[in-house]
């Protein structure tokens, strides 16, 4: 199954016109003609089945024949991850986290951050592509990059964690995870969080955790976290 994405479609849509790029792909590459089936998601949980009505290379039209809603996870995972020095590593994290299951992502700028500027348009495209490739109908929400001090002073709900490498009192993340719970977890830059940031997070209700015995790269730590949360919740569902 191939999945197309359009945020402008909802359960009341009857006819749909693809943009030029997708129209060309449908008609030229996939060789779809009148009556052929296409699958579309709006990234908000809906999966639409459509039939090609006008296979035009610039404006391919399709008629929606059915729709179904895919329920969200029983938990909400918010990964707050410092941008990596090499952009492609962060992009890899975005792709893999979307495949595994993440609900929202916030790039956080820290004391030790080597990269302080991100390209949200490019990140957004990577999230969309990973969602389509993994046949997922929920597009993760990409929040604007924010300074650590500004982020930590907000109001939070659910379980809060900060993963860091300092040799202080930390619990294993896996031992702290609860099923069907909203989770926000902070993952620092290559140089880790500063002591000041760690203390500030703890003062604001974040529990310090470790992700294992070895020192992980930022993007690896984020994926380990993402998988741990998914695994704990899947075990609950008997998968």
Number of strands: 13
Mean pLDDT: 93
Query: What separation lies between the terminal Cα atoms?
Result: 23 Å
> Based on CA inertia axes, which overall geometry fits?
elongated
Based on CA atoms alone, the radius of gyration comes out at: 20 Å
The share of residues in extended strands comes to: 25-35%
Poorly predicted sequence stretches spanning 5 or more consecutive residues: none
The major beta sheet can be summarized as: 8 strands, parallel
Helix-strand sequence:
EEHEEEEHEHEEHEEHEHEH
- Name the structural class: alpha/beta
**Number of helix segments?**
7
The share of residues in helices is 25-40%
What does this entry show, briefly?
This protein has 239 residues and is an alpha/beta fold.
Would you spell out the secondary-structure blueprint of this structure?
Blueprint: E1 3-5, E2 15-17, H1 20-29, E3 37-41, E4 46-54, E5 61-69, E6 77-81, H2 87-100, E7 104-109, H3 120-133, E8 141-142, E9 146-147, H4 148-152, E10 159-163, E11 171-172, H5 173-176, E12 183-187, H6 195-203, E13 207-210, H7 218-237
Parallel strand pairs: 1-3, 6-7, 6-12, 7-8, 7-9, 10-12, 10-13, 11-13
Antiparallel strand pairs: 2-5, 3-4, 4-5
Helix pairs in contact: 2-3, 2-7
Describe this structure in words.
By secondary structure, the chain is of the alpha/beta class. 34% of the residues are buried. It has helices spanning 20-29, 87-100, 120-133, 148-152, 173-176, 195-203, 218-237; strands at residues 3-5, 15-17, 37-41, 46-54, 61-69, 77-81, 104-109, 141-142, 146-147, 159-163, 171-172, 183-187, 207-210. The two termini are 23 Å apart. It contains seven helices and 13 strands. The model has no long low-confidence stretch (mean pLDDT 93). Helix 2 runs parallel beside helix 3 (120-133) and helix 2 (87-100) packs parallel to helix 7 (218-237). The longest helix has 20 residues, at 218-237. Strand 3 and strand 4 (46-54) form a beta hairpin. The strands form two sheets. Strands 6, 7, 8, 9, 10, 11, 12 and 13 form an eight-stranded parallel β-sheet that branches. Strands 1-3-4-5-2 form a five-stranded mixed β-sheet.
